[in-house]
Amino acid sequence: MDRYTFQKQLELYRTPYEEEAEFIADFAALTEDPLAYKRERLAGHFTASSWIVNKKRTHTLLTLHRKLGRWLQLGGHADGNENLMEVAMKEAMEESGLQNLRLVEEQIFDLDKHIIPERPHVPEHYHYDVRFLLEADMDEPLQISDESISLAWFSFDSVADMIGYNPSILRMLEKTSKSEILL
């Protein structure tokens, strides 16, 4: 998915979730900035992540993020790569050790604009996170990366209890539960 395909997908992207719909225009505007795919754009930049589910759509794979100390989907910075689908797949493999990931569809699954707190040498800034739906086998061994404290498969029933209140994760969970995508 190159920048132009991404722009076209954003033009066509519709969501019934008000909080997600509010920032689609922000994503579209950001695609015009050549620095948007680099973390050096301190006001905010694109990231890509994967909502990884098992084939039966009963579990999702989450990481306990080392820097943020929260359970999240796997993903990371584009670092200049304008193919955000490729970034999401690469990050998912690097952060989980999974080699047999399957992209469910070549469409945006979810969008989220969220603030990243200030850290030493990095000011507070926005991540414009583009999410893709991936499928994996729960029996494939996991390998924790340096970016994680832990990795675990969570049943859909237990996700809300594990993450606390995180509307974007709850939204992806709801989208997966309602998904019309063929199993």
From TrEMBL:
PANTHER family: ADP-RIBOSE PYROPHOSPHATASE, DIHYDRONEOPTERIN TRIPHOSPHATE DIPHOSPHATASE. Gene3D superfamilies: Nucleoside Triphosphate Pyrophosphohydrolase. Residues 43-176 form the Nudix hydrolase domain. It holds the Pfam family NUDIX. This is NUDIX domain-containing protein. It comes from the Bacteria. The lineage of its organism: Bacteria, Pseudomonadati, Bacteroidota, Cytophagia, Cytophagales. InterPro entries: NUDIX_hydrolase-like_dom_sf, NUDIX_hydrolase_dom.
